[in-house]
Amino acid sequence: MRRGVLVRVVAVGLAAAAVAVAVALLVPWLPTPASTQADRIDFVFWFVTAISIAIFALVSGVIVYAVVRFRARPDDDSDGAPIHGNTGLEIAWTAVPAALVTAIAVVSAVALAENDHLPKHHIRVNVTAQQFAWSFSYPKYKGLTVSTLHLPIHEAVELKMQSKDVIHSFWVPQFSQKQDVVPGITTRLVITPKRLGTYPVVCTELCGEGHAIMRTEAVVQTPTAFAAWVKAQQKLAEQALGGAGGGPGLAAFNSNGCSACHTFKPAGSTGTTGPDLDNLATYARRAGKPLVAFVHQSIVDPNAYIEKGYQPGIMPTTFKSLPKQQLDALVQFLTEAKK
Amino acid sequence: MTTAAVTHDELHAGPAPPPHGWRRLTAPGWLRVPWATALFFGIGVGIVVLVRWAEGWKPYWDGQVITTVSLATVGIGFLVGIGGFDYWGRYAIGSPTRPEDHSGHGAYTWRDYFRINTDHKVIGIQYLVTTIFFFIAGGFTAMIMRAELARPGMQFVGNQVFNELFSVHAALMIFLFIIPAFAGLGNFVIPLMIGAPDMAFPRLNALSFWLLPIAGLMMLSSFLVPGFGCGWTGYAPLCSTHQELGAVFFNMGVQWAGASSIMTALNFLVTIITMRAPGMTFWRMPLLVWANFTTSLLVVIATPFIAGSQFMTMFDHIMHTNFFQWEQHGYVLGYQHIFWFYSHPAVYIMMLPGFGIASEVISTFARKPIFGYRLMALSLMAILVLGFSVWAHHMFVSGMAPWLRVPMMVTSVVIAVPTGIKVFSWLATLWEGKLNFSTPMLFALGFVSMFVIGGLSGIYLAAVPIDIHVSDTYFVVAHIHYVLFGGSLFTIFAGIYYWFPKMTGRMYNEKLGKLHFWLTFIGFNATFFPMHYLGLQGMPRRVSDYAPRFADLNFFISIASFFLGASTLVFLYNMIVSWARGEPAPANPWRALTIEWQVSSPPPVFNFDEIPQVVGGPYEYGVPGARHAVFNGDRVVEQEEVRT
Fold first, then answer.
1. Which of A240, A298, B297, B346 is surrounded by the fewest CB atoms within 10 Å?
2. pLDDT score for B422
3. The CATH number of domain A243-336 is 3.40.50.720
4. Do residues A240 and A249 touch, judged by C-beta distance below 8 A?
């Protein structure tokens, strides 16, 4: 190959690389990382991106040059040069990519091992997923069960996750960590939050009709704010214990994930996916049923009456199999708890 | 050569004389279809009711079970009606048969395309027209999805319908378009390319085509019985006990499509191994033949796994078995392992024939031999072998045994090496060539550049830490479309334009072809490139609604996708009008060397008047005096091996 050709191909390749680098740097591709695991994943991402840009530049350099330079003239019926191959070149483009992908595999394996590592000092949260809600309980704070995930900053957390029905998947884009939640087995995920803020929790495994709305939030707090939040939640639970339906009702409300989708002041929940349960009396009037019977029916057969502005088929129909005791406590809590 | 057809027509009877009177009802064809289908539906109902009655299972009349069993029997009834089993039936009961019966060969009127036809060229066209029909149906579902996704919130369809739309979209595009479209192209081209008069088993070939419409209609009719809203991956337990009856339509549809591709693959294997023209050694086969050979091996080995997985979910759903029922100690992840053990090789089933087409087109339009021919063939075999060792890279976040992740990552990135070899070889083939930018070449080059992007994003997905972040997001949607649309579909378009003159005997409109390419190329990139960003930023896939901050980009993507959808109209117009009124095509409009171009366009009914003699490699462009094949009439001295 003449030197002039090489220079021109390299020039085209560098131009392509410049465009690719600009696209890579000017667009904020990744969310701002909020966990130490995300930092490592981002590093692997940029490592692979650097290699990809080099390959992309090489390929586009050759294609663009060839398309411009080797275009046949309309009246040119002749054939190209009968080149059948070049052993050296073929060995090179087998060996070099092999070396590059090996490097990627090594970097990835190291990052993976570090991300899986759970420091001795950590807290544990049990995650329960079901169609179409999340609930989180903190074994350290006996029985504390909530529908939004609260975490203290800079402390590793181990999520132990179980599903009640189908496969779901837990993902917080800013944490970059994701893990399927599979019925029948317990899966785990390690996250070390490093930035304060509120982030979306997204279900990424298709789990049925309400998959798109299976969302909640993860809140990263300072240790003092987290402690205060734990206290407040515990107090709320105590208060509910004294009220109608009491502890069992609130416990059932939280552990079945009701709070993820419904607003209900006595439980301190603020979900907006389903109807606001503070207005149950109004809904019952519209449905033309006595309150208690209406609430009971809406739990065991949610599609019997659909409040205007909401869709049928979103609320799980699995609550019909709740134990009678739990169901009664739940109905009592919903109908009699102090607003 | 063009007189060959006449000679053969004299030797073999043409179409059989049409039957008269009541015999028209019993002769194979569309009059027999309705009553045979009804009869077999009745048989299905009978079996269910009888078994339930005998076992004392009430109710005897169970709609779900009857529907499920009918999905098997109705299909058989249709095949019996159209005549798929006539020859074997006669043979089995000892009636007289004519082994050399060629009455079902060739197409003389348009009606011959609507009956059991044993001519591989007719079957190839049947395949392509049918698959393009399902391509349009699948595209339509995508358009409705993009309309829904143009704005956040719900506008046109409900959640369940949306889930059914993307499930059917993928099922149609994969099982009823890409896989069988390649089978169709191969069906037409492979026997011609290797100098064979037909496929090895013409009757089996006909049968495998007629399984397809059954599969496709089954997938489409899943809309009528709501329930197939669990994705084409059909994960248990969502797709078994947590879905309505529609999921069973998918389970059974996959069986029909899978049986079709297994039969075709066996046919390709036997044809390629045993029916090559004299002189065509394996190292003289065109790369498309190599590609179909490796693809067929993949199909034969892998497809039974998806068939098994779909039967198991269906049994869990209907018969209360416990393969994947965790409450009864079934193994939920077992489904995914079996499913991906097919479905990852399926990615190569959908890609290797495209590699073959790209090699044919690039070599012909660059007027140069394929660079590194043997390494190109060997890399196909490497992908075949490695393809079976990477399935669990779809399961990095699934909760499977953690130790499995790193080995699967290593095999997954290593598969980039043979793939890279192919890309580099195509680039080197362009070098010092005389490039002609006809439509097939544009699509082939578009394929190479888009496939590089899809391949690179594949490396991101193979690297476990990155995959953990982007798994099940729009990044994956972007990747799969760069590979299957920018990859497979571009090569299907390249192949259709390339062999259109050979298939129809007419030239397509070159200007419209180029217009089609540019509209598709721009629309494709505008639609799918931004999806990388959406996924990295946090938009999961398979959702009907999304966070408001993704609204503007989704609106842009939707507009681009409508543009992309509209570009298909140019293709359809060009194909239909050119097939009816295009300029007559010469035998070899591209001055290609492979054997299919050495016979008339369209080829004679039995392909070759005399058996071609293969005397050299298939891509000896620019080599003075080199020939790939000669016929007795103009036999030249066998050339020396050009490459030693």
1. B297
2. 96
3. no
4. yes
A239's CB contacts (< 8 A; 6+ apart) are none
> Do residues B557 and B527 touch, judged by C-beta distance below 8 A?
yes
- For chain A, say whether B643 makes contact (Cβ under 8 Å): yes
**pLDDT level of residue B9 (50, 70, 90 thresholds):** very low
Q: Is the pLDDT of residue B7 over 60?
A: no
pLDDT band at residue B493 using 50, 70 and 90 as cut-offs? very high
Percent composition of chain B: helix, strand, coil (DSSP 3-state, to 5): 65, 0, 30
Is the model's pTM score more than 0.90? yes
Classify domain A122-228 by CATH architecture. Answer: Sandwich (2.60)
Chain B residues whose beta carbon lies within 8 Å of the beta carbon of residue A101: 413-414, 416-417, 459
Residue carrying the six token digits 């006449």: B6
Distance, in Å, from the CA atom of A80 to the CA atom of A72, rounded to the nearest integer, reads 9
- Regarding an ipTM greater than 0.85, the answer is yes
A168 membership: H or E segment, kind and range = strand A168-172
Written out in words, the top-level CATH class of the domain with range B111-598 is mainly alpha
Residue with tokens 């052993």: A87
Structure tokens at A337: 């708890």
Calculate the alpha carbon distances from B568 to A61, B181, B520, B521, B578 in Å. 30, 16, 8, 11, 15
Nearest Cα to Cα of residue A179 among B335, B467, B478: B467
Residues of chain B with CATH 1.20.210.10: 111-598
Distance CA B487, CA B368 (A): 23
Residue A293 CB neighbour total at 10 angstroms: 12
Nearest C-alpha in B relative to A20: B453
List the alpha helices (DSSP H) in B390-509.
Answer: 405-414, 416-430, 439-462, 464-470, 474-483, 490-504
Domain layout of chain A by residue ranges: 3-66+87-116, 122-228, 243-336
Closest Cβ–Cβ partner in B238, B327, B471 for A208: B238
Residue given tokens 């070149």 in the structure block: A89
Neighbours of B493 (CB within 10 A): 24
pLDDT digits (tens, 9 = 90+) for A58-91: 999 999 999 999 999 888 888 888 889 899 999 9
Shortest Cα distance, chain B CAs vs residue A280, angstroms? 25
A297-328 confidence digits (pLDDT tens) = 989 888 888 888 787 777 877 788 788 888 88
Q: Give helix then strand counts, H and E, for chain B.
A: 22, 2
| DSSP β-bridge partners for residue B473 | B540
Gap from B591 CA to chain A (nearest CA, Å): 9
